[in-house]
Records
---
Amino acid sequence: MAKHETPLLDQLETGPWPSFVTDLKRQAATKPECWDILGILELSYKDRITHWKHGGIVGVFGYGGGIVGRYADMPKQFPGVEHFHTIRVAQPSSKYYSTANLRQLMDLWEKHGSGMTNFHGSTGDIILLGTRTENLEPFFWDLTHDMGQDLGGSGSNLRTPANCIGHSRCEWSCYDTEEACYHLTQHYQDEIHRPAFPYKFKFKFSGCPNDCVAAIARSDVSVIGTWRDEIRIDQAAVKEYVAGNYPPNGGSHSGKDWGKFDIQKEVIDLCPTDCMWMEGGELKIDDTECTRCMHCINVMPRALRPGADQGASICVGAKAPILDGAQFSTLIVPFMKVEKENEFEELIEFIESIWDWWMEVGKNRERVGETMQRVGLPTFLKVMGIEPIPQHVKEPRSNPYVFWKEEEVEGGFERDVEEFRRKHAA
Amino acid sequence: MGYNPDKPMDGRISDLGPPHYEQFFPPVIKANKGKWLWHEITQPGVLMHKSETGDEVYSIRCGTARLVSIEYIREVCDIADEFCDGYLRFTTRNNVEFMVDSKEKVQPLLDNLASRGNKFPVGGTGAGVTNIVHTQGWVHCHTPATDASGVVKAVMDELFDYFTSMTLPAQVRIALACCLNMCGAVHASDIAILGVHRKPPMIDHTRITGVCELPLAIASCPLGAVKPAKATVDGKEIKTVQVNVDRCMFCGNCYTMCPAMPLADPEGDGIAILVGGKVSNRISHPKFSKLVIPFLPNTTPRWPETVAAVKKILEAYAADANKYERLGDWAERIGWEKFFEKCDIPFTDKSIDDYRLAYDTWRTTTQFKYTSHIK
């Protein structure tokens, strides 16, 4: 594979941010197919269109997904990327690694692939970028036999779940996001590897409403940690903040002089429900009015902690714009205990109620958020066996186009116009 | 024994899932999981977490290109072996984090990282600009309207000082998607860079038979612009589709479904800028990003128009917003008319919603501010 001239890409080797071009060139020393990656990308920079053919269906026996097939549209010029399939490898919760594990995976990829990767794909997978069809099964054999690791998901199935860092290195996490993510990933291996759904379906697990894995925007079932008792206040630490001895927001604004910390201005006046005040030098919170937005806790991490009665809010239906517009997940279960002790029984039951229904009524390539829009939230709640509550809406409807079921209306829908006419002549 | 293509199901192992996370925990993480009390950012890129046991863990966060080689990952491993007992992690925004269990171990690690040129820039914490969540672009995808890695490199070079400092009113999340499938976080980011097309698909009648399930292509259109049609190929009448050009807004979803409907174009394709999205629930609700610049050209290799637009928006926000105010909170407080004025962005009809629930985005009040837009 010849070295290609890359005058356009060479210009991306300057500047302070790490250069993917420099990295590709370094890898090309031992993996000459990287020159063809650079070559075909240079051509795209010249032509300003992609040079990958449409689609590509490849995989490994036993699975219906996990590998994204891809072929170059100029294979003669760039034989190193004639086949350029991507392998999705299931990543560990929170993306912690040992160097032993990563080195072994890199050795496998050196043997079977292009030498390029993405750490990580947006859904969470380790992305191994570029290999030939005949390498897929040998790679999969080595991955499962030598490393005990598996592929991630692709296609109309449960995609690879992901989580925020959770209890492992955050004081705010209200449940064990790592264990929830791991447990449900293992529990639903069949649904991940063999597409059986109308369309794709994603889980994401965030430990608190800061939502560091963007669950509310990027997953069909969004499990977001919260609490239902009082914010824990350390009044001595509050005094330290007021005295200026602790930096607000963990020091996250230290690069600019924002003046002395002002608890009234920076915390009390910014609370979205106005439920905080100072009294006799102590910070007071009316927790019954608190919506647990995290602002005060974020500003004073050494003085305020989430409550001790912890669980998660479950929201459903986020998706990107195609087809009917982007959606965030909408609140369905305000509070659920999410615990390893009962093997996440309640959450699993909830998920399976959705699947039982959506797999039946969901149209071809219809995300569950769109199915919910099509049938309406009241119908979805009924299907799920969930009582409607005010928390399910931001505001009540303003149009009067209300459906009533026949059995809800006295006398039913069957009527005789003759009888009506006896009281009301035409 | 390895894979035997003659007996593909022999010895096959499947449904293993990911490795258990706990085996990859640094000892200090394993010992203190669920016991953390508070944290502090000791300097840009360095976090300290304090446990109820008294233990501390220092995390050093470095930017990465996301598209990285095995040689790069091995270099990451070399660093983790030398300084971090052989453990490391990646963040949800594709930064890499090295963790050490005492303050004394921080500076030697920082010095080592700095000695490696610009491969491991330390930062991405607090009220700054962190890594750009992005997609495949021309490196691997068949539907992009722009590249991902190149645009991200060009933008991060320009905003680099914001990665290594914490001078903004709040954190600014920038995301890029190379088409409106919006893989990633473009629909909910402070500043979003989105690849867009501006020409309807071409129809390859000679190939459509056999490569395309026509009802799928028809159903794939959000605006009902794709209709069944007939065409003559080599004297034979075939079933195909036609596109009502007046209804097509160039989303490309029909091409996703049907290989015979390509629409990429060097002059037509480019970038739109959206702003004001967020996912956290802090103070205000999560917000979608809104389209403020409908088109910037694909000027390879450094996209100067896009870089300048992102920088201008960021600097207008930095100069004007209140502490803790996300970009969308700021724009909503001052009003979008002021946003356009302060950012010096021309307002066009392309920013006015005309899709389905568009009415909810129009201004049904007499409350507005007089800006230079009112002549």
---
Amino acid sequence: MSQNSRSRHNNRRNQQKHKSDRDTNYGEELNPVVKVFQEYALELDDKHDRYERIVKLSRDITIEAKRIIFLLHTIDGRKNNRSKVLEEAEQRLTKVIEVNFKSIALELTGQDPYQYRCSYSPGLQEFIEAYSFMEYYKNGADEMSGTMSDWMVLQQKMQYERDDKLNTIKDDSQKSIDSPNEVDIENDIKTVPQKFEFIVDPTEYILGIADLTGELMRRCINSLGSGETDVCLETCKVLQQLYSGYISLNVQRSRELSRKIYTMRQSVLKAENVCYNVKVRGGEAAKWGAVFENKMNDDLDEGFY
Amino acid sequence: MANFVNLEVFSNYQKYIDNEQEIRENIRIKVREIEQFVKEATIQLQAIHSDLSKIDSACQAARKQIASCAGVYKQLSEIIPHGQYYRYSDHWTYITQRLVFLIAMVVYLEAGFLVKRETVAEMLGLQVSHTQGFHLDIEDYLMGILQMASELSRFATNSVTMGDYDRPLNISHFMANLNSGFRLLNLKNDGLRKRFDALKYDVKKIEEVVYDISIRGLRNETPQPTAENAVSNETTSAEAKSD
């Protein structure tokens, strides 16, 4: 529906343009400047339209990723809903990979992905945040020693194959694991139109993971509210590890990353303060301390102070 | 859960980013070489504002400098990995725009028409489409052309000062074409749009110069340094300054 109205709008715009072309052509039928600029106009329009389409796709990804993160926050030790929520989150994330990212990858086939980076970067970062947050829960659920997957793993998941029928998705991530020659095929992706991929830029990945720390901080605070103090300590530990990972990076002139590291420090401090309060006052009192800024409550602080 | 964080990710990223920094460093060296040629060519072309008879020699000298850039662009293209033009393009967009401006200026002075994007790309040894390899970005080309418009409006006033009254008419016609060409483009609200907005002031300035010489009947006359001419020159340049 929205696609239709959009293309109609484009048509209208093109019609207007053609009309103005005709107007100028009355006077300057053979003006060579106007002639070449008509070509330039087509090229620029194509670029801008593609950019806008990707922005739209990216916005859908952002919204869905935010919802998945919200869903993941509902995981609560008391309700025993972990596996159910995780399953749903994973399903929805897979759907984002197979539908939304595939559309962006389709738009970008034969294009320089870095040219349109600004258009899809917010969606990709939000997606990485949601994905790694899901993995963080999954890791705890299975009691495995699994770690967060890096950009190469995501890259593997975002391999697609062109299909004539619409809406049928073939995910050849299995295949790519099986055949060691996959890398060679990937490099020739521009010449082979059958296969395409969404290129996960490592910088975007690092920026997306930086956003994860904000969610971990939220989880730390939330679990204080629900009384799961062990979760507070554990998220705080993860935050500290992530932070030390980030400050170990030596990146020149990346304003975006340094801004995120600054915010990350705030989150780490907040989580550390929560753990501190848990330790000195016990779980229940710390909750009130965090919420009401150390406001005294005669009924509750008894026995802890 | 405690071992969720994989610190290897960070060391891998560090390797990745170090590699990128190295490429950027190499690009910067090449861009600096191009900058040197561009500077030389710009200086050579300044001669047109003070001596009309030097135009041909200035164009030749500028062409020589521009031709030297093609070799450096070739080396630059070898540094850039395939399909990553826009990852690093911010290093050379400015200088490429400058080169487009110089080429457009030289071609206009020599032949009096607007240089095509294909011709510019050919002179710099670049491709036109990004699928063919290291290319000339369309926005860089358009930005360069807009820079030329400002330079031409300056040249119009100066050529009047030097007694050439036909040239402003020529330039005015050329700029009108250019303006109608740019108005065919649907520009987004970006840098190119801002630069395009300045084009109307350049057009206005040239039209005023044409107006000045027209009402005084100076067109199609052989330049004669009379008292009347001197007065008209003064008013023209004064008005141009107040713009």
